[in-house]
Amino acid sequence: MKALTMHVDIVSAEKEIFSGLAEMLVATLVNGEVGILPRHTPLLARMKPGEVRVKTPTEELSFYVSGGLLEVQPHVVTVLADTALRARDIDEAAALKAKERAEEALRNRQVDIDYAKAQAELAEAIAQLRAIQKLRERAHK
């Protein structure tokens, strides 16, 4: 029996990251993780920085998104993100440096820093590092 599929598009402000058929998509929303299958009820939801997994008929792909919107129609799912990367393309060293910078800024409590921006940068760096870690765990299975 042929598996049901849906069309998935993952796009950032800069470019299209993925476009193709998928059997399932898993994304991190502001309210928690959601799994999307073909014929899912229409949905429009905000995503938080984190991993998006796409199970195609032949493989499972992992992406990092900086947040954005998830739009679900019965046969089409669109992920719109400011930043989207294939998890394997994340620069781990840069993510670690960004995490350290944000933690240092929050620790120093300088009057002239933007705490909301520092917290957002910290959350984004942590989400990138988690995506790398999950990708490595799946590769070792």
Which terms would index this structure?
cell membrane; ATP Synthase, domain 1; CF(1); alpha+beta; 2 domains; ATP_synth_F1_esu_C; Single alpha-helices involved in coiled-coils or other helix-helix interfaces; single chain; ATP_synth_F1_dsu/esu; 141 residues; proton-transporting ATP synthase activity, rotational mechanism; 9-stranded mixed beta sheet
Average predicted local confidence, pLDDT: 82
| Total individual domains | 2
Q: What kind of oligomer do you see?
A: single chain
Silhouette: elongated
H-E order: EEEEEEEEEHH
Give the second-level CATH assignment, the architecture of the largest domain.
Sandwich
Low-confidence stretches: none
User: What is the CA-based Rg, rounded?
Assistant: 16 Å
CATH top level of the largest domain is Mainly Beta
Domain ATP synthase F1 complex delta/epsilon subunit N-terminal: 6-84
Membrane topology: Peripheral membrane protein
GO molecular function: ATP binding; proton-transporting ATP synthase activity, rotational mechanism
Subunit structure: F-type ATPases have 2 components, CF(1) - the catalytic core - and CF(0) - the membrane proton channel. CF(1) has five subunits: alpha(3), beta(3), gamma(1), delta(1), epsilon(1). CF(0) has three main subunits: a, b and c.
